[in-house]
Amino acid sequence: MLAGLSVDYVVRLEQGRGPRPSSQVIAALAQALRLGDDDRDLLFRLAGHEPPQAGRISMVVRPSVLRLLDRMADLPVLVLSAKGDVLAWNPLGAALQGDMSAWPRRRRNLIWQRFLGSSRCQIAAGPDEDDAAARASVGTLRAAQARYPGDPDLIRLIAELRRGSPRFDELWREGRSSPWRAATKSVRHPSLGTFALDCDTMLLPDGHQTVLVYSAEPGSPEATMLDMLRVIGLQQV
User: Whole domain around residue 209: which residue ranges?
Assistant: First the structure.
């Protein structure tokens, strides 16, 4: 479920029985309903919130991007915000990464998970890969800070990571900035073991969002593992 909200919670909202939803919940609903910008802004105002403002990191995925996820159902796909929040994913993306709808919303962030969390699947599992991925993650937040210096959620995330992870703080003080990059990554899956997948990135410039797509060469052992993930992983999710 893209909104990551229970059916009961949505029903209570519709019936006016729940507390006023937060702006994060409204953003999730707008995304799940695939609203355009005008309808999204109206939904925010009806809920008593101001629509997303310039200078804030966009947390809403365009309907056209969600349609792209639907068309790429045979590959694991994630959509990330400028600060690494997992905004949307397809079923195979959940089979690879875990059921992200069960994660608390503020923890549904790949950079937070890398330094402070633990998920059922580890991406970039080798030591060299892990170091490169850690540096890329910190560089991504550096780039986000340069674009959105006043975003309060970004400020809180960086502060939490610096307090909770000495490794993050060490890399942060190096001052390097870089976007997500394409790479071949080792995947350590709890049921399928370790295998490699190509991870390609597509930048969506208007919201500085990134689409991550995992794939394997047809006919390769890795492609076989991806086929197994389609069966085993989806059953687990």
Answer: 53-236
